[in-house]
Amino acid sequence: MNRPRTLAGLLLALITLVVFAAPSSAAPSTPPPAVTVAFDHGEVRAAVGERFTLRARISDISAAPVGPSIAHLNVASLTSDVYVDPEDWSSDRSRPVAAMAAGDGTWLDWEIQAVTAGRFDVYVVVLPTGPDRAGSGGPGPAPLVASAPVHVTVTPRRTLTAGGSLPTAITVPLLLGAGALATRRRARRASNLAQTGGPKT
User: Fold this and answer.
1) Which of 9, 111, 127, 154 is most buried by a 10 A CB count?
2) Nearest Cα to 157, choosing from 191, 190, 116?
3) What are phi and psi of 166, to 5 degrees?
């Protein structure tokens, strides 16, 4: 008898119909970013203790205005044995960004101090904060936007070693003493000449 085979075929057809007739429940796609952030240069070299300024431009690249946001600076070490506390590098890392019209932009400056020798990446992340946090592509939370990093190379501060400072400590007093002695001899010689009525011929 073919009844079991017929029932199995009907069941398979019913399952196929239900699957293809069900509405799709795909997750909403993340909207494209409405802003970009970029530094004005990509590399910095400094010595420990030196200060430098990084400047970044935040631009609205969408066809609609964007709400306010926060630009947050971060520092990451590229050397495994070097610890980084970003607060030591810049005490004012978070900057408010006002709402912008389509196509507008704004510049932000960060003053940074090189704290530790090593290789580092400095970058900025922009986080939307307004009530309408949707991106330019439709409803949903706007994605975070990160800049390309600025590569920072920090060299140790140059200091005199014990071997380099000792000759300096000895040479400078010797030169000063020699100069004073030469001046005294010239003065004594001039005094003697004045007393004797000038040089003898």
Assistant:
1) 154
2) 116
3) -65, -50
Write the CATH number of the domain with boundaries 35-155.
Answer: 2.60.40.10
| Domain positions in the chain | 35-155, 160-195
Residue 139 token pair: 């409803």
Each residue's pLDDT tens digit in the chain (201 positions)? 555 555 555 545 555 554 445 444 455 556 677 899 999 989 999 999 999 999 999 999 999 999 999 999 999 999 888 999 999 999 999 999 999 999 999 999 999 999 999 999 999 999 998 765 555 444 445 678 999 999 999 999 876 555 555 455 555 565 666 666 667 777 677 666 566 665 555
Could you tell me whether strands 43-47 and 150-155 are parallel, antiparallel, or unpaired per DSSP bridges?
A: parallel
3-state secondary structure of 182: helix
Record the pTM. Answer: 0.62
